[in-house]
Amino acid sequence: MTVTIYDVAREANVSMATVSRVVNGNQNVKPSTRKKVLEVIERLEYRPNAVARGLASKKTTTVGVIIPDISNSIYAEAARGIEDIATMYNYNIILANSDQNEEKEITLLDTMLGKQVDGIVMMSDAVTDKLHHLMKHAPVPIVLAGSVDESNDVPSVNIDYFQASYEAIQLLISNGHKRIAFLSGPLAYTINSKYKLAAYKKALQDANIEIDEQLIISEESSYDSGIEAWETLSTLDNPPTAFFAGSDELAIGIIHGAQDHGKNVPDDIEVISFENSKLARMVRPRLTSVAFPLYDIGAVAMRLLTKIMNKENIEEKVVILPHRIESRQSVKG
Amino acid sequence: MTVTIYDVAREANVSMATVSRVVNGNQNVKPSTRKKVLEVIERLEYRPNAVARGLASKKTTTVGVIIPDISNSIYAEAARGIEDIATMYNYNIILANSDQNEEKEITLLDTMLGKQVDGIVMMSDAVTDKLHHLMKHAPVPIVLAGSVDESNDVPSVNIDYFQASYEAIQLLISNGHKRIAFLSGPLAYTINSKYKLAAYKKALQDANIEIDEQLIISEESSYDSGIEAWETLSTLDNPPTAFFAGSDELAIGIIHGAQDHGKNVPDDIEVISFENSKLARMVRPRLTSVAFPLYDIGAVAMRLLTKIMNKENIEEKVVILPHRIESRQSVKG
DNA sequence: GTGAAAGCGCTAACAG
DNA sequence: CTGTTAGCGCTTTCAC
């Protein structure tokens, strides 16, 4: 029924070993027999069975990708970076959503390992001990993308979240603000608590600005949360005049909340976000934002993974990409 | 090194067949031996090798997903729908981007078939004859999601693009507009030319409004194209007063183009889009839009695929999901 | 430069 | 209820 390597061997009057050689580009084949085999392959429409190949060679040329949610542009962007590089190196990708649920993450790791992927790229906002342990003991390499593992002993690629956030807050401070609100997704996520929030506090302290817990809001990282946050913050006795938002959606929510109440951005309030997705240009005023290079992070993570899978020497398992602040109109100057 | 079914068979003093049975949940195993086997599996940390299983059973429980670009929210949304249902039915997904390039699409189909996927969900804005032929002759079922194949003989799930577009144009007409612009992505894409544009022309004709080719713009479906389109259209002698935009980004581009030039939406111009992504709520004015239920399309397509893979009886291979118009503020009334 | 043969780890009859 | 035995389609020594 389906044509196998054996069929083409028979038709070409050679052994399966020879067919295998030409299929795999092995040079030890006389040009004339290679040609003959190729013809038969074409004629029979032979397509190598990657599963059989995988079983025999113990390599599947597919890598697993576990991300929180592909419908979230942040992760979709990273996924594209991962896939592009994977394709470049001839790997395919098994993609799965974890919804940032540890149990799912563990199950997914398990089923991917069962499928004999050659490696895994993972994005997780909270690398728990259990996860960390699994990653350390997995039979194939795993690299984290845009996700921090505090022990720093698993390969990963990120930007310097603390420094980037610090700079963002500083920008607001340098514009004269004393009442700066901090808005982020769940503090259960390492990046939010250990980096963004920590940087916020540090920057304020360094500028001798008192930290007001009322100005710190941790919610879902969505547009609606941004609107809500504005509602609650704007009714404070001493409301904030500037906002640091952990994502573009959050920032847009704040801006719209303010605008819907007649405020002007950036004249009345200023806001800086942390993401710089294409959304940032699609609002008025356009968002000033810390650029979080998700595509690059995905691409570099995948590239790193290929190196590890090839057992190449890695200079540095923990890579930190450069960041920058994209100045637009939601912050003055 | 890695523990196999044979190892657990030996340790549990049973045959591999029995281990296979318990692993696969076959009921023909005495509870006591099942328990024994399960213990050994746990102790040895045995993990079934899906590749070997796939080779032996000719089923991989993975399906291929070919989409134009995962970093585009349209497709990402659909991908999420596909993946959710795939997970529900215990399938994994091999995801790849085609960039809407026929050659890549063909290559991807080939490598996925080589990897022995059990089925494929494909999104393609232009199902060429070649593609159609490949799909018809593939060894596993393929279903199209949000993509039309005009011959209608390959399984697919869509909405009624013509009718939906017609209604959108009608809404604009009923608001008194005579100069209505049509904006879409490439007319090389079936949906744009054969449905959206066709509906536009029909609706205008039915209302005895003359069709002005100057008002028809087909460009990339991006925010910037929307802005550009506004620039060129607004300088016409008799500029349009209403716009039908093929996507949310296009619509937002038009709106911002207009607003940046002091126009008010919807007082000066009205615009309706075709998509209704979450972006629609994240602009001012909020977008009135034809709802294109991408998640559902993906989910239903995947569900359909599972049915075909299971050789269940399918009522209708070509499914049309209902659509609706979400009224917000970019169109009056 | 080419072939023979032994698996890779598992499923699936077929016996018993 | 359980074991035996063939493969699944290909890669990979090891000979020749």
Automatic annotation (TrEMBL), chains A, B:
Positions of the HTH lacI-type domain: 3-57
Protein name (database record): Catabolite control protein A
CDD domains listed in its UniProt record: HTH_LacI (cd01392), PBP1_CcpA (cd06298)
NCBIfam families per record: ccpA
Record GO terms (molecular function): DNA-binding transcription factor activity; transcription cis-regulatory region binding
InterPro entries: CcpA, HTH_LacI, LacI/GalR-like_sensor, Lambda_DNA-bd_dom_sf, Peripla_BP_I
Keywords: Activator, DNA-binding, Repressor, Transcription, Transcription regulation
Function: Global transcriptional regulator of carbon catabolite repression (CCR) and carbon catabolite activation (CCA), which ensures optimal energy usage under diverse conditions.
Gene3D superfamilies: 3.40.50.2300, lambda repressor-like DNA-binding domains
Species in which this protein is naturally found: Ureibacillus acetophenoni
Domain of life: Bacteria
Keyword Transcription regulation: yes
Organism classification: Bacteria, Bacillati, Bacillota, Bacilli, Bacillales
